[in-house]
Amino acid sequence: MSARGPASLDALTTALRRLPGVGARSAQRFAYHLLQHDREAALEISRALADSVARIRHCARCNTFTEREVCETCESSRRDASLLCVVETPADQLMIEQTHSYPGLYFVLMGRLSPIEGVGPRDIHFERLLARACDGVVAEVILATNFTQEGEATAHYLGEMLRARGLRVSRLARGVPVGSELEYVDASTIAHALRDRRGVD
Amino acid sequence: MSARGPASLDALTTALRRLPGVGARSAQRFAYHLLQHDREAALEISRALADSVARIRHCARCNTFTEREVCETCESSRRDASLLCVVETPADQLMIEQTHSYPGLYFVLMGRLSPIEGVGPRDIHFERLLARACDGVVAEVILATNFTQEGEATAHYLGEMLRARGLRVSRLARGVPVGSELEYVDASTIAHALRDRRGVD
C-alpha cells in the first residue's frame, strides 16, 4: 500500500461514494469492513445490484417499481379502481400499503415539482397521470405527496389540473400525529388540526 | 407492489443492510436512489465489489490489503527495514503514509485485542507479527494502535511480548492535537502532554 490503496480497493471506495449521503470516510469503512469481515455480503450486494438493475422497471399503469409490465397492485381485481392515490415515491406507496387501510390504486410520481432543481411536470410524468386519472373509472384522486414545501406545491399544481378535468380531488388530512404530545407538536400542525377537527359521536 | 416490493428490490434492500451501520431506512434509500436516479452507479458498485473480492488478499509479510503476494511497500527497497510500525487497520496505515514522514515498514493487525468480543492474540496474527519482528533486521517496533482502551491494551500486550524478545519498542506520542485550543482538549491528554513536554531550542 502506497499513499493510496490497491487499485481494486480504490475503485470500490470510489464506487461506494456514489451512494446518497456516503462520503469518503463511510465509503472506506464499508469497503474495509466487507473485505475484512464479510466477503460473502460483498458478493451478495454485488449480485443483488446487478439483478435488480436487470429486473426492475416501472409499471406501465402506476409507474411504481415492478418486475412486470403492469404491477401486481394494478392488476389486482380486489382493488377499488375508482380511487387513485398519488404519491412521490415507491417508499411512500409502501408506507400507505402497510396501513392496510387503503383499498384503491396508485400513481407514483417518482419525484416532486422543484423549480430550483429543474424538476418540472414532465419529470413527474404529469401527462401520464392525467391520462391515468381520466380513464373514466377513477372518481377521486387522493393527493398524498409529502407535507414539505415542494410536496405541497406539487399537490396544489396537480389538484388544480385534475379539478379542471372534472375529477374529485382530496388531500391527506393534516393533524396531530398519533401518540404525540401537544407540547411537542408545532403550532401550524395544531392550527390545521383545530380547523379540521372532527365531531365526536 | 404489495405490502412488500418486487422480489429483486427486496433482495437488494436486504443485502444493503449488511453494510456496517446501515439500517432498513438507509438500505431502502440507497436502493431506491440507485434504481431511480443512478443505475450506472449501481452497476459500477456491483462490479467493484465482485472485482475487489476476487483481487484483494493480505500481504504475506505485513498483512495489509494488496492485490499481490507481497505488497508494494514491503517490496520497496527505499524503505527503512529496521523500523516496523504496528497498526490496527489498513486505514490507519494509509493515514500514516499520508503524513509522508514515516520511512519504515508496517505490520497490520487487522483488529485489536478485545476479550469482550472474543478477539484474542491469534485473531490479530500475533505469531506472524512476532516472526516478522524477529527477522534480525527490525531494530525498533513502533506501536501505533489506537489510543482507545482496547488499542492501549493491545499496545501494552504487544510491547511486553516484543520487549521480552529483546526488541526496542516505542509508542506514538500522546499530546495536544495540532491546531487545537487547550480549552477544548481533555484533561488526560493535557496531562500526557505535560509529562512528555519537549525542550525548546
Mean pLDDT of chain A: 90
**Helix/strand class of chain A:** alpha/beta
Q: Would you identify the regions of chain A where 5 or more consecutive residues have pLDDT less than 50? A: none
Q: Could you tell me the strand content of chain A as a percent range?
A: 5-15%
CA distance, first residue to last residue of chain A: 73 Å
Main interface: chain pair and counts:
A-B, 62 and 62 residues
Largest sheet of chain A: 4 strands, parallel
DSSP helical segment count of chain A: 8
Order of helices and strands of chain A: HHHEEHEHEHEHEH
Strand segment tally of chain A: 6
Strand order of the largest sheet of chain A: 4-3-5-6
Radius of gyration of chain A: 22 Å
Shape of chain A: globular
Multimeric state = homodimer
Spell out the key features of this protein:
4-stranded parallel β-sheet; homodimer; 12% strand; 43% helix; 201 residues; globular; alpha/beta
